[in-house]
Amino acid sequence: MVRFSRVLIVLPLLLVLSLSINAQRINTKKAYAAALKELTSALLKRQVVQKEDAQYGAIQCAHCNVLHTRAAEAVYPFAIMYKISGDEAYLKAALATANWLMKQQEKDGSWKETPEEWKGTTTDQLLMLLLAYESLSPKLKEQEKTAWKTAMNAAADFLFKNMTPEFASINYVATTTATLAKAGQFFGNNAYSNQAQALAHRTVSKMDEDGFINGEGGRSYKNKQGVDLGYDMEMSLWGLGLYARLTADTLVDGYVKRALKNHVYFIYPDGSLDGSWGIRSNKWTGYGSATSDGCQVLFSMYADEDPVYASASMRNLQFLMKNKAKDLIGFGQHHEAVFDTPPCIYPTFAKAKNIAMAYELEKEATRELTALHSDKIGWMKLFPTLDVVEVRTENFMATITGYRYKDPAGTKGKYMYRPTGGAVSYLWMKDLGFLQASSPTVYTRPEPMSFPEAPGTMSLTPRIEYTDSLGYFTNLFEFDSRLTIDSTQQGHYGVHASGELKDKNQLAGGVGYTIDYLFTNNTYQKTIQLSWHDAWPAIKIVEPFVDAEGATFNAIDDRTVIINTGKKKLKFELVSGNAKIILGRNRDKFWTPYPALKAFPIELEVTPAVPIFKQTISYKVSVIQ
Q1: For the Broad-specificity ulvan lyase N-terminal domain, which residue ranges apply (predicted)?
Q2: 452 vs 622, which has greater pLDDT?
Q3: Is residue 302 part of a domain?
């Protein structure tokens, strides 16, 4: 058994998954162990190992040139890797990491999320210490055990006194339900346990009717609203699920189970996690969010409920590991094309922590393979509490968003530059993957360390826009759009969106719009009607397509463009209306850190024909090879 486990962890993860899938079984334990091996090995290389160094045990980040205290959460993946492999290097790394972290603890028991002043991540660090202690305590001397317990108790006291929805975004509160439940059991402290229950019930009370958790956005009075799919799946729901497992709280467990039934729709066929539309989508990477943990722990806990969850976990894990830049998890598929520096270590240690928990919480060694919801062809689903629509045909899958959340801070808030207004925030294509993907309407750096510098970048989100003497106006700033769907004609799936082109202050400039989407198995068509009523600017319709290496975009005539991605050949065709097609304008600016992608813009320029105040433009993308 020992010899077998030591062999399996060095197998490449993609090979492990391929073998499992071909056999119609998913060997979850083997896949988690293989992924964990790859990620913890990368972290080991970056650990300060000179004992005479004051930072002995810290993990270095070449991207940020900072010793992130949160990186010490690697103590748990190191501990689990030691448990799996028996390799003393992981034991040594885990103990050194924990000792370094305890030296960074503040007097109030918290840890700052260096280089920021935020202390809410204390919940993540404490939970990893508590879980790691279970594996490492036999290797600790009595003096070391006392040091661990003292540090963990101080951190638990900090959370007990401070963590509420009034103090933090909801994902921290949800994680703290598990942290305090675990601390309550560890220390025999009923006060911690009672607080965990109170926070868990407050958190599930913020779920909407579709199971999405509000509380990630800005503060209105004392409460927060706003949903983010990435943080729901990669933080909040697993925190609540682990709390429910620790405490046998069937009420909370039921809420999580109900929520997960809707959330799993957002795992696309290639395993990508669609966090394109949520209020924290400025950190969406394609595989999840850059600084949240991951969905494997959530799916592993509920794998007995529905076989689709294990399949979703494995599919996302496979996609995640395709996003590596050298040995670290990057910010997206084109990380090495858009950055000349290595990634921040955040995605690597956060995903490693999640995978380690998934490995430990998975009850079965293997799971039956089953189709994802997104594998099934010919459906459309509206999430009414979100004004978000998903469409799936044979060749396409798309997310269209009109999510209406408005941040109380307005333009000063970091959540008001996400896609909305009836925009396609993610367009996926069979045998290709990303065809179009959204990015912030205006790139900002609300957390300077988490958001790389990207001067002059332009949004990748398909959009309608114009600029005049009053400013910049677009449907992406229309947070009051109206969406309806139509699937009455077999094989045809329609979505209708309407609104006004607005500026970042939510002020209309004088041009209205409607967008009618029509998806079939082989085509994706957009019909846009523009209504000039108080202004007469020229309008640009911008359609950026993911620009993979070797892709070409060639105009055949003034109404047709052939897109050759290297894997698929598509025709972009102006079907009706008068518009000038412009290829590749400002091409070098169409890239984004999150998700790390490049794109090629196709623009349709529409000039108003005074006194005619309405014009309709229709164009479609067809699969031709």
Answers
A1: 36-366
A2: 622
A3: no
108 with 30, same domain?
no
Whether 335 and 407 map to the same domain: the answer is: no
Burial of residue 192 (number of CB atoms within 10 Å: 0-12, 13-18, 19+): buried
Q: Looking at the structure, do residues 36 and 53 belong to the same domain, yes or no?
A: no
Count Cβ atoms below 10 Å from residue 486 Cβ, excluding itself.
Answer: 14
Percentage of the chain lying above the pLDDT 70 cut: 96
Two tokens, residue 91: 């034991």
Whether the predicted model's global pTM rises above the 0.85 cut: yes
Could you list the residue range(s) of the whole structural domain that residue 412 is in?
Answer: 379-623
Total domains in the chain come to: 4
Identify residue 364 by its one-letter amino acid code.
Answer: E
User: Per the domain annotation, does 616 fall within a domain?
Assistant: yes
Among 153, 98, 99, 159, CA closest to 129: 98
AA identity, residue 101: L
Query: Is there a domain that residue 271 lies in?
Result: no
What does the DSSP assignment read for 73-119?
Answer: GGHHHHHHHHHHH--HHHHHHHHHHHHHHHHT--TTS----TTS---
Is residue 168 within 8 Å of 120, Cβ to Cβ? Answer: yes
The model's pLDDT over 50-63, given as tens digits with 9 standing for 90+, comes to: 999 999 999 999 99
The verdict on 540 and 474 lying in the same domain is yes
Cβ atoms of 601 and 585 within 8 Å: the answer is yes
Query: Bridge-partner residues for 532, per DSSP?
Result: 511
354: region left, alpha or beta (phi > 0 left; psi from -120 to 50 alpha): alpha
Residue 450 confidence class, pLDDT cut points 50, 70, 90: confident
